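Q: Predict the bound structure with zinc ion.
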Amino acid sequence: MQTEQMSLITPKWILTLENDDLLENHSLLIDQHIIKDILPTTDARETYPSTKEIELPNQLLMPGFVNCHGHAAMNLFKGLADDLPLMTWLEKHIWPAEGQWVSEEFVKDGTKLAIAEMLKSGTTCFSDMYFFPEQAADVAAEYGMRGVFYGPVMDFPTPYGSGPDEYIEKIIKAHDHFKHHPLIDIGFGPHAPYTVSDEPIKQVRALADQLNMPIQIHLHETEFEVIDAVEKTGHRPSERLRDLGLFGEDVQAVHVTQANQTDMDIFHKYGVHVIHCPESNLKLASGFCPIYALQQNGVNVALGTDGSASNNDLDMMGEMHTAALLAKAVAQNASAIPALEAVKMATINGAKALGKETEIGSLKVGKQADIISIDFNDIACTPVYDPISHLVYSSSRSQVDHVWVAGKLQVKNKQLCHFNVQQLMDMSQSWAEKIQASK
Ligand SMILES: [Zn+2]
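A: Predicted complex:
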């Protein structure tokens, strides 16, 4: 049956990531929220003759990017404090600003700005670890964006709660509210080993098992974090979390700039996913995640931007580019993380890390229609020997042309379909003026 909801997309290339092939002269059929068919264009036009066809000449169709780590609302702190090491940046700038400004309203407005930036740059699913996750999730749901929202758990009070008990209670409430929503998942976000004590970690593990919720934690972000823990306890943070029983296939460890063989063995044994945020690590001089070694040790590595206050953008194409280059320098091997591998880290590996690989991350019949097109009608991408090479090494987010999330068109001809961009920019600037005036 053909409905109004069907569209046939005919690009120059389709990168499904179901195998390593690049399809040419093929079309993809979206039916409501799913991918209904992928077939040769001549067959498609015969089989679906009255379906609306969207022709995208000289464009590459691929799965949308999965941004596995960020703090979306921090988009309103973009450029507030730069060129500082992690702890100075956090303690002297970010935590005081959060203490003063973070509220439900701040989270809603910041998340809206972040979602607009992400959609425009081809991200169709994001993971968010921030205060007021239910408000952030509300915004995502309103705009039709897919997301996993990790409510923060830490020992000390913040504008979101007084301590671990209240955080956990609020996260469970958010989970109950969204548990049947097709685009939204809620998880636990114990902030980091140095901000969460043993008891809440164990509680989070038990509740995650009971409620089938994922867990995300910042881990081994800097060398100092590891040295300090070893001095105080005799154990690396990864060993402590293993001993507390936290690790499993539903856990994502973010950053991991420090990984020795013991850490890699632990991650592999428990199926922990590593989320690599290369640009944030570079900007805060946190260290370099050894992603090639992790992969060689059987660990799934996916990519995240981290928050806009430490990156300072939410550009997964930029992250993919940086990851591919940095991996070669760190491994001292120019063959480490070839272009296609970097694309997988930004898509299907991210879907696996978030436990969503049966729904998203590749273009396959029956999967969700989270799809983007990249416009190769650009001097930066001319001439073309290998489109995948250009995707990673020569393209930029300004070439993202069409974006669908669950079959809904979000970006058309490089323009956001459902946002009033001027209003969004005015709203963000008025936050910046208030924040600046209070400094
Ligand atoms: Zn982070």
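A: The longest helix spans residues 104-120.
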